[in-house]
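Sequence of 4Fe-4S ferredoxin, iron-sulfur binding domain protein (Desulforudis audaxviator).
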Amino acid sequence: MHRHPLDPLDPRPNPRRRMVQLASALAANGHLSGFAEGRIYQGSLKQVCVPFLNCYSCPGALGACPVGSYQVLLALPGHAVSLYVVGVVTAAGALGGRLICGWLCPFGLLQEVLARPRARKVRVPSFLSAIKYLMLAAVLFLPALLVSAAGIGAPYFCTYVCPAGTLEAGLLVGLRDPALRALMGPLFFWKVGVLAAFLVAMVFVYRPFCRTACPLGAFYGLMNPVSLWRLDYRASRCQQCHSCRDACPLQIAVDRAPNHPECIRCLECTRVCPTGALTFTARVADKEVRKCKA
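Predicted 3D structure, token representation.
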């Protein structure tokens, strides 16, 4: 039976996905008193690493950010690789790839909320999309390679780039603490400039940070083709109406590359497909075991 297609040009997201995004943001930043007091949560939950970008120093954060946690340990003199952090993000990527980006990441939610409807039709050049892979390489190796005379590196991505950290920690905590305000210098203003540039871009380009600079997005994108849950395209059902392409906010030719590394698995394509040619499917050993249509 054919489904009645939704309007592929409708910019409104799937209400179910929006609810999950909001719930994830609240769950990850549930230390609400921290926002009022400017105090960082230091309880036992801080040892738990969330699978998405969420700054450790955000006053509401209950868990740790995988990017920051990995870099801090790698920067120490022993340059230890956190198998726990690697395990968390690898397991998350193996399950759903960039589903984490599309459904759970609070900073991804912010980018979507700020985007104007026409932002979904703005293309990002491939050379800009490739920058996030350089960011991933920097996160994985630079803290152990670029070190001081004492053999100590730094969490370079968090220190010089991460706009989520600037928003969640630098502004929310730093500006209200007189001692921290006194220490603010050129580096802080550089980070604010990076954040401001991305905030402006978010209005006109759909998820610009995810598409150009997020190291986690780069890693999860590499996992898209091999993850347990992935998009399944059945050419025999396809009418070549290209509704899926029109609905994709990242301008992916979904019928040609259903598990493209840029796909955040928002599943808008599965919602508008009139024949069910696209489904979000779990596979084990290349055998379909379950289907879930958005």
